[in-house]
Amino acid sequence: MINVTEGQELWRATEARKSGSQTAHFIDWLARNRGKNFSDYWGLWRWSVDDIPGFWQAIWDYFEIIHNGEIEKILTDDPMPRTRWFTGTQLNYAEHVLRQETNGDPSRTVISHTSEARPELAHMSWGELGGAVRKLATRLRDMGIEPGDRIVAYMPNIPETFIAMLATTAIGATWSSAAPEFGSQTVIDRFSQIEPKLVFAVNGYRYGGKDFDRTGELAHILGKLPSAEQVVMLDYLPDAGAPDFAGEIIPWDDMVSGPDVAREDFDFTRVPSDHPLWILFSSGTTGLPKPIVHGHHGIVVEHLKSGAFHLDMHENAVQFCYSTTGWMVWNTLMQGPMLNGRVVLYDGHPTYPDAAYLWDLMSKTGVTTFGVSPTFMGLVRSQGIRPGEDFDMSALETILLTGSPSTPEILAWIHDAVKADIYATSQSGGTEVCSGILAGSCLLPANAGEIQAPALGTDTVAFNEVGKPVVGDVGELVIRQPMPSMPLFFWGDDDFSRYIDSYFDTFPGIWRHGDRVRFTETGGSYVLGRSDATLNRFGVRIGSAEIYRTIEGFAEVADSLIVCIEEPDGGYYMPLFIQMAKGQRMTDDLEKEIVRRLRTERSPRHVPDVIVEAPEIPTTLTGKKMEVPVRRMLLGEEADKVASKDATKNPAAVDWFADFARKRKS
């Protein structure tokens, strides 16, 4: 048992690491080139939010952004969410990743990869990556794919998926992806909104030692995407075959075969700052998941800034984050290569055959920067594994804990069992900005359970109920000024109404992120969970609406409600409350069928911890399920503080849930 108190200092960088950090190099550059002098992180952060245009112009110049045109405005005068960045210029995301192909020997490794389906560790060079991207991009152009066309992928975290993404974005087409473990309806809910022209897909995958043939699910998905004219199939799971599809199916190997395309013979499509790069999807708490559109400009500058200054990745960095293609973390994995480092990819169960597997992989590949959820660290700890003793962790410099709040005990365990002198940082961001909002710096001490600081260029504070900043008290996490990687728009939301309703409905003109947070007097913060109804399941956010759409298919069920809370030990509790239809009762067979349907139609993460029969589901007067009040009651708050019975259609239901919460707590 590790004894640690919240806020206790766990680590402080040596002077050598501070002076050699990417942030220190940037501070030196600012002094030489801008006449700006800063002695610490806080001085740099304050300037970055007091002079938003000056800061982002400096980022642009420091990283030598490749572009056409001249900057008219760093950011326009339009208020959020209509602010536009770097107007007058054109650039390309993929060009910024692949420019490192020419920085030195193209035979250098850029991707190391393995998976349960391909257990042998393999490596890909810069030349191989760039060559494959150019071949595929050229073939896509020859097939008539044009800038702005949507291309989607139902593929896992393997090199082919990154090649497809880079080829898509290299020609100005717009990318989106879903993990193959997603159930068909979950994928349809996403991709049908954006009408893709072409689909990249695998026929199955291997997870936890078991094979999963996805040809049936893929056929169902394709049948609901009438805009999709062609499918590029990768035979990833042997003997799984191909799906039924009325259009053309092209083998992956055919798309990347043929003569090489030389670097000098390939032109990246440079696009304006309002051109869609990729579309990520929100969790789908209410209605269909929100299709969040990011731009090339915002993602390039934000990812360079975050990778360098908040993760301290350098040109020799080896980045490894455990992620699926359905999580925004996957879209950040090119940060390492963008900074001339390497990336490690893994597709499979993170603890199969046990929780030591990923540590062995990191030891073999020399990982310097490891990103993972606190839940994974808890599993490693519970299995008695001590990575620093069992594996060679000499290369490891930074551990990023993300996806959910990290407990003081987990951070202390990392310093005890992984490496005493390691920059272990808990950070928090979101799909919406595809980056961090609350971040860290190796210039600052790392304290137990605390996120070190707001990210550079991010004017974020906690607001109380009346929209005033608070320190020391829990409030709503808000962003008061624009960030370059904020969404350009939501696909199909032409008048911005859905965008505004999602983030600007509570505090007009101010982004409300949906996290409960407490800032300290020293500038650090503690994220205490979601304030909305998003389900944070083992560090991956999923939507309650996805679960409801499956449950609505059961005639025996009248209504349902699902919430997820973070437990004090760092775990999760996700109960599904079921109100039975008149004359029906919950049976073991029905419960098993609910679990089966959620697992197959959605994903294993959508399966609740427990199914509880409730007499009635509480709703507001307008018929909305009272997810947030129920969640807050389960977190220990009193019912009269979180739910007004005057605004409740069925007050007795609130009483039942309050009693349930009290009994569970006792």
Automatic annotation (TrEMBL):
Domain AMP-dependent synthetase/ligase intervals: 104-483
Domain Acetyl-coenzyme A synthetase N-terminal: 41-96
EC number(s) stated in the UniProt entry for this protein: 6.2.1.16
Signal sequence annotation: none
Keyword annotations from UniProtKB, A to Z: ATP-binding, Ligase, Nucleotide-binding
Pfam family, one: AMP-binding
GO molecular function: acetoacetate-CoA ligase activity
PANTHER family: ACETOACETYL-COA SYNTHETASE
Protein family membership: Belongs to the ATP-dependent AMP-binding enzyme family.
Official protein name in the record: Acetoacetate--CoA ligase
Protein species of origin: Maritimibacter dapengensis
Lineage: Bacteria, Pseudomonadati, Pseudomonadota, Alphaproteobacteria, Rhodobacterales
